[in-house]
Design goal:
- The chain is an alpha/beta fold.
- An eleven-stranded mixed sheet has the order 2-10-19-18-17-16-15-14-11-12-13, sandwiched between helices. The protein has an eight-stranded mixed sheet with strand order 1-9-8-7-6-3-4-5, sandwiched between helices.
Amino acid sequence: MSTRPRDEIVEIGALDAAWPLHDSAASRQVEQSALARCPDGALMDRAGLAVARLALALAPQAQAVRVYAGPGHNGGDGLIAARHLHRAGRAVQVLLLADPAGLPADAALAWRAAQAAGVPIVGSPEALAPDPGLVIDALLGLGARRGPEGAMAAAIDAINAQDAPVLAVDLPSGLHPDTGALLSRQAVRATATLALLTLKPGGFTAAGREHSGAPWLADLGIDATEAAPPTAWLNGAPAFGPRAQDSHKGRFGDVVVIGGAPGMAGALWLAARAALAAGAGRVYACPLDPQAALLDPLRPELMGRREAWRTAPALLASGTVVCGCGGGDAVRGALPSVLSQGQRLVLDADALNALAADAVLRRLLQARGQRGARTLLTPHPLEAARLLGVPVREVQHDRLAAAQALARQTGCTVLLKGSGSVIAGATGLPRLNPTGNAALATAGTGDVLAGWAGGLWAQRSGDDPADIASAAAWSHGRAADLWPGHRAGHPLRAADLVEAMVRLG
């Protein structure tokens, strides 16, 4: 758990610590608790001032600021921010998409104060001055559940058509706060989002990462966790320390990688390289293709083995098994032994597809938990959908719920890959991973993630698989974030990703 700042504005992307997330219901609870302890209007005053402060910091050269204000408390925050920016000498103009007579009490007070301060407030987009240097989205807040229509939808389109940077208040308008799904066809694409009081899960997964931009938090002097427990956690950097000086390879465990059906041997070797790079003491690469070579010339440290799932039950039981990378249909023949004998098991790719298609294998998977064996599943959305028996759009519509449902059904830990990867166990709170970018959308990077998780787990055999998955996902994404090519739209090739992860230290 992180140490929370008091009444400060914090850039979340600059932090390595875990951070609590509150869904809309929990955030409302925090808000009501804060309102009960503050004088009328004080909490909104703090929120609006925080928005203005961040606006000045993000766009100090912007002399013209346009604020889009909606009919609720979010609009009130924007009106207060406009008043502060006006006093700071900026040419501020507010488009208010609401009847002032229908504003909530605090927002109505903010509207009157903005008027009294001389802030220009208009009700029609035709009255707006052109070319602002900064746009503030204060249209829709936490309570929005329907897709924006009419003038609200047109305002969102107008915001997205601006060349100026966009600061979203609390969350981008049109985005679901809990799931990160779009409420309709469009949502504001923000340069930065200033969450107020709490961080919302929807800003960190699905479309949320694309639309939220750089995440910031203004806690407004309130410790959210005192008012409501988190509903999820934002994943932090792994806290593994250095190795003891008297170490030897036997202390760091064995990894058995099973995969590489005919034509897909590369996936096997990528996963094996990643396991070795993550620090496993010994890594055995076991191809499913009987004709495949047993040597990786670039990494001769890796040890090739034929049919270890048949010939080495003791190794499966004592080591950490990574199964499925490039497995094709051939992986089905290995899975009964792997599921029955492996004590620590990472299942990826075609191993997951085989499970989805075979009820007998699924029963073997469920039996693992009953005897104390632990399993980490690493599906992408389509693989998760097959396992759950639902359309992939249902998985993507609520990624947190899908990961939790899959964890409950299987009794396994689940790492649901994608933008804002979700780590969920059969019990406990889910975690959202904040690192990574589209450079990882290339062949083999999932094999690297599975292998890296196996390499970490081999060294830390007693760790909860959710901690292993969290550490692997964070490092996997962080390596991509630090790779310069992603800003130019270039993919990060999987073999290079392994070395980039090593450089993280």
